[in-house]
Automatic annotation (TrEMBL):
Transmembrane segments: 47-65, 85-104
Protein name: Sodium symporter small subunit domain-containing protein
Comp. bias (Basic and acidic residues): 10-21
Keywords: Membrane, Transmembrane, Transmembrane helix
Pfam families: DUF4212
Highest taxon listed in the record's lineage: Archaea
Domain Sodium symporter small subunit: 38-118
Residues covered by region (Disordered): 1-21
Length: 143
């Protein structure tokens, strides 16, 4: 992940990006994973690709290393007494997935803040009821 995604501290830059983001009509933009059409999509895709590459290395790295260097990966680790490949597959791989999920959520929150996206406003609008009329949950009409 590059340093330009670290969540700028300059409020003017954040306001400028948020203002530009408000002017974009996303319904008229083409969604293409290989060539994103908006700055937000480009920044989000950088975060996704960086996370995917890290996940692939951390998840598939230990088994591949065990296959390529079985002598090194099957040696006992000092202190815990487990073979290196067992520790890497049983502890490092699952833990890294949790850490990557946390890092993604932090980066996504930084992107949302940079582009002025507020999820709280959308959630409060969705919870409002109009008048005394309640929506029928099954899609039909109330009797």
């Amino acid at each position: 992940m590059t340093s330009d995604m670290s969540g700028s501290t300059d409020p003017h830059e954040s306001q400028t990006k948020a203002a530009q983001h408000e002017q974009i009509d996303y319904l008229d933009r083409e969604v293409n994973l290989l060539k994103p059409s908006t700055p937000f999509m480009r920044d989000h895709l950088k975060v996704i690709w960086a996370g995917f590459i890290a996940w692939a290395l951390l998840t598939f790295g230990p088994p591949v290393a065990t296959y390529l260097a079985p002598g090194l990966m099957t040696t006992q680790l000092p202190g815990i007494g487990f073979p290196a490949h067992y520790f890497a597959v049983a502890v490092i791989s699952p833990t890294s997935s949790l850490v990557l999920a946390f890092l993604y959520s932090r980066k996504r929150d930084q992107l949302d803040q940079r582009y002025g996206i507020d999820h709280g406003a959308a959630a409060s609008d969705a919870g409002e009821t109009h008048g005394d009329e309640a929506a029928a949950v099954d899609g039909g009409v109330t009797e």
